[in-house]
Specification:
Number of domains: 1
Order of helices and strands: EHHEEHEE
Helix content: 25-40%
Strand content: 25-35%
CATH superfamily: Histidine kinase-like ATPase, C-terminal domain
Strand order of the largest sheet: 1-2-3-5-4
Radius of gyration: 18 Å
Distance between the termini: 40 Å
Shape: globular
CATH architecture: 2-Layer Sandwich
Length: 156
Amino acid sequence: MDTRQSQQKEPARALLGIRVGTEAICEIEDFVVTFAAEQGIAAEDKARVLILVEELFTNLSRYGYRDRAEAVGEAEVMLELDEDRLTIEFRDDGEEFNPLSSPPPEPEKPGDDELAGGLGLHIVRELADGADYRRADGRNVIRLNRRVSLVKVSRR
C-alpha cells in the first residue's frame, strides 16, 4: 500500500477589488503584471491575460452603468493559477450582461469606416480556453480559464 501523501501544492490566488473609474485600469495592469511575475507566467501569456481582463473592464465601464449618471461601480478580479491552468474571475455590479451570449462581430465591408461592434468580446472568447457566466447576488460573474506557459522565477 502506498502511504505517500500527494505532493500537490495549493493554487496561487490573488484578488483585487476596484472602484470603476479612470485610475482603475492602471491598478488592473499592475495587479496582473505582479501576479504574472510572481508566478512565472510567460510574457506572451501575461499579455493575453492583460487583454482579457482589460477588455472585460473596458466593457463594464462603457456599458455596465447606462442607468447611472456616472460609470461608477465596483468590480473584483481574481486570478488563480493551479499548475499551468489560470482561472480569471471577473465580478461586477453593472447591469446584467452575459458577454458570452453576444453575437460575433459583423465582418467589415469595404469602405466602412466604423469598427465592428463586439470585437473585444470576440477576442475574449478566442483567447480563453473555457468560459462561463452567471448572475449571482446582483453581480455579473464571468470565469475564464486558459493554459499558460510558465518560466522559472528567480528568488533572490
